[in-house]
Amino acid sequence: xxxxxxRARPDVRRWWKLSWPGRLxxxxxxxxxxxxxxxxxxxxxxxxxxxxxEGETMAFDTKILQALRSPDDPSRPIGxxxxxxxxxxxxxxxxxxxxxxxxxxxxxxxxxxxxxxxxLVVLLATISGEFLNTVLKSAFNRPRPSIVPHLRTAFSTSxxxxxxxxxxxxxxxxxxxxxxxxxxxxxxxxxxxVSMLVTMxxxxxxxxxxxxxxxxxxxxxxxxxxxxxxxxxxxxRFEGATRIExxxxxxx
Length: 252
Known about the structure:
single chain; mainly alpha; 11 helices
């Protein structure tokens, strides 16, 4: 007598991933990881800011700035002349003018693609970053370095570096948006790597040009990364409400 056919066993793992508890679990895990990382970075920033205010980082800052200049002539940076020209170009990438142009260009593209809420996320990230930069600089009110001559004109106070912070906010936010549109992991890693490289080059250029202490740039990187992470979390949290994914499918 033939055996009755076996009933197909339900794929419990697949069902869990597709069910709302599974999706909720992944979202909560993202919140936990990014939130924990942001808390750690904020703790590091607070410790760094405290040491900066007490002058405990001055020896380290002075040593780095002097190491980047000729011992015979502090107005002359080390290395061939083309390095100075290249870093002058790179530092402009993190300036308000270039960041504003980049943001407006990206926002215009997103509006033309009918991705209105994604455009709003990018615009709010840039505006809030500029506001945060102004508040922090006014709060710490650290003078610019006077150890070596400046190779670039600078007007505001020193800590944290606005170029380092705002470039991190803008370029990492744009990188996160591009990563969500990319399919392969290699492409996502490439986008993240380029975003981080641009941010690092902008910050390094500020130290080389003598307009920021190294701790200014480190502080700017930390706050920029934290703020970009917060923007990413908000976009993830309200993804359903803002319909960013729906916009992406609509514009495809």
